[in-house]
Specification:
Blueprint (H helix, E strand, L loop, with lengths): L1 E9 L3 H9 L1 H8 L12 E4 L4 E9 L3 E8 L6 E10 L2 E11 L4 H21 L1
Antiparallel strand pairs: 1-6, 2-3, 3-4, 4-5, 5-6
């Protein structure tokens, strides 16, 4: 199993970045797909029409979101952690993705950049 970490600087207040992570209507704007998401611990989520799904494990509004992620026929979930902090109107997002199947790790590394946090950054920075 593999893990990686990525950092993003998004020129937007932390509250807007947080909403882009947890509000289904906003997720649908940047992802282009139906989303089921919540900011509640234990809530189940689905992204990209159910291709990715899981459960919120820890939620600290505007600061930290930890999720158990499943994709395809994985025997156990991977763990995704978003840590957020804001300085002077710029939000830093530290993403840690752990326990990924070896053969899928590089796809996820580029996927976060190209389709998830990269898309959030583009949308919020306009």
């Amino acid at each position: 199993m593999k893990s990686f970490k990525q950092n993003y600087l998004i020129k937007a207040p932390v509250e807007k970045v947080w909403q882009a992570l947890v509000a289904p209507k906003i997720i649908e704007q940047w992802s282009g797909s139906k989303a089921v998401m919540s900011d509640q611990v234990g809530a189940k989520f689905e992204l990209w029409d159910g291709d990715m799904f899981g459960t919120n494990a820890e939620v600290i509004a505007n600061k930290k979101l930890v999720q158990d992620w499943f994709g395809g026929d994985w025997p156990e979930p991977s763990k995704v952690t978003f840590n957020l902090s804001e300085k002077d109107g710029v939000t830093e997002v530290e993403l840690v993705h752990e326990n990924l199947p070896d053969k899928e790790a590089s796809d996820f590394e580029s996927g976060w950049r190209n389709y998830y946090l990269g898309s959030i950054k583009k949308m919020l920075e306009g």
